[in-house]
Write a structure and sequence with these properties.
alpha/beta; TIM Barrel; 8-stranded parallel barrel; 15 helices; 11 strands; binds beta-D-glucopyranose
Length: 413
């Protein structure tokens, strides 16, 4: 089998804060400008996608892709608590309309890590009523945008705070975090600055899972009829020695959100690598294995394993809402895509209902605390001129998308 199912969706993804530029009303903008800060550099103009979205969407269509996954920015849509900006909602209507004009299926994420400043200043997701505010924003946005949406997700990787409790390849300097949070709290004059990345992960998860279920209904309350899911971060977790610690990690980091996806219209999975876990916890990269610019292993086989892990736990369709690699060597990206998709095909051949593959990312962009250094894009961006240059990997993926099949016979066992 080398062909993908009929109507398979082929796309590339971005997130508002990472590409739009000048997301100045967001909590992350505040953190980026604290001294000290965890961020290597601030996002500033990013890829100026806010103004250049139509060129970028045309570019995505021109290589042969048929889906654009992007996020709408809460900090723009609700700049002050309870005040919704019609002009920003209209902006996202134009983005959605542009997708349709280019025969691109828009997949909208309603929360991709960033929150409005006012939300952070009142304590963020740790606050008991945080979900009420998120649901209201979803409902208001869906009312304005719903007729143009084709697929939607409530949250992007809401399990990340749980995952961060385990990672060993990123050293998070605790004192910098504390000083940065104190400064942000002071800058906004709130009680305790509540950002998605910081804070009590269990409390946050509890509130976000409840908010997800309520947001499903809110997103369906407006015009349009589109499937709504949640996009969960997964890794191929490999036990070294006894499996108990690995199983504990999976139960803590993945299973609650996979279950939430199972009670939605679809589950989105986002996969980049594997992780070896021994009795002490995460072990970091194995000696001799290639690592990407993110410091974790080049491990495209993770996608198939994660598809099987998810499919064992849910009955709903699965979309691969992110998969990708940070590298300066585009030939490695081509190989990563090829091997990931071969794995996806094996999973599909064994009966798993996979509906689409969306590559992270369309553009080289702002990779959170790592700034602009890691290159995840199918398209390079010169941040001085904002000129876009299509990489060979974009054409490679576009060819697969156009023919809905792998270019060479894939080994499907
Ligand atoms: C996130 C993206 C991020 C990407 C690469 C995912 O965790 O959804 O925002 O840029 O992975 O690290």
């Amino acid at each position: 089998m080398t062909s993908f199912p009929r109507d398979f969706v082929w796309g590339a993804a971005t997130a508002a804060h990472q590409v739009e530029g000048n997301n100045i009303n967001s909590d992350l903008w505040v953190l980026e400008h604290c001294k000290p800060t965890l961020f290597e550099e601030p996002s500033l103009d990013a890829c100026d996608h806010y103004h250049r979205f139509s060129d970028d969407i045309r570019l995505l269509a021109s290589v042969g892709l048929n889906c654009y996954r992007f996020s709408v920015e809460w900090a723009r849509i609700e700049p002050e608590e309870g005040h919704f900006s019609i002009s920003e909602l209209d902006h996202y209507r134009r983005v959605l309309a542009c997708c349709h004009e280019n025969k691109i299926t828009p997949m909208v994420t309603f929360y991709h890590f960033s929150s409005p400043r006012w939300f952070a200043a009142r304590g963020g997701w740790e606050k008991r009523d945080a979900g009420d505010l998120f649901v209201r924003y979803c409902e208001r946005s869906a009312k304005h945008l719903g007729d143009l949406i084709s697929l939607a997700s409530t949250f992007n990787e809401p399990n990340l705070p749980q995952l961060l409790r385990w990672v060993s390849n990123v050293e998070i300097p605790f004192t910098t975090v504390m000083r940065m949070s104190r400064q942000a709290t002071k800058a906004l004059g709130g009680n305790k600055f509540g950002c998605f990345f910081l804070g009590d992960a269990d409390r946050l998860q509890h509130h976000m899972i409840a908010a997800h279920h309520r947001a499903l209904a809110a997103l369906k309350s407006g015009p349009g009829a589109y499937p709504v899911g949640v996009n969960v971060s997964l890794q191929d977790e490999q036990a070294v020695g006894p499996a108990s610690k690995r199983d504990q990690k999976c139960a803590q980091v993945y299973d609650p959100w996979i279950a939430a996806g199972g009670h939605s219209d679809f589950l989105g999975i986002q996969v980049y690598t594997r992780c070896r876990v021994n009795k002490k916890g995460d072990m970091g990269p194995e000696h001799g294995v290639e690592v990407t610019q993110m410091g974790y292993e080049f491990w495209p086989d993770a996608l198939e394993v994660c598809l099987r892990y998810a499919a064992d736990r849910v009955k709903v369709p699965i979309y691969i809402t992110e998969s990708g690699i940070a590298t300066d060597n585009d030939a490695r990206r081509v190989e990563y895509i090829q091997r990931s998709l071969e794995g996806a095909l094996r999973a599909i051949a064994s009966g798993i209902d996979v509906r689409g593959y969306i590559h992270w990312s369309l553009l080289d962009n702002f990779e959170w605390i790592f700034g602009y250094r890691p290159k995840f894009g199918l398209v390079a961006v010169d941040r001085t001129t904002q000129q876009r240059t299509i990489k060979p990997s974009a054409h490679y993926l576009g060819e697969i998308a156009r023919h809905n099949r792998m270019p060479h016979p894939a080994s499907v066992g």
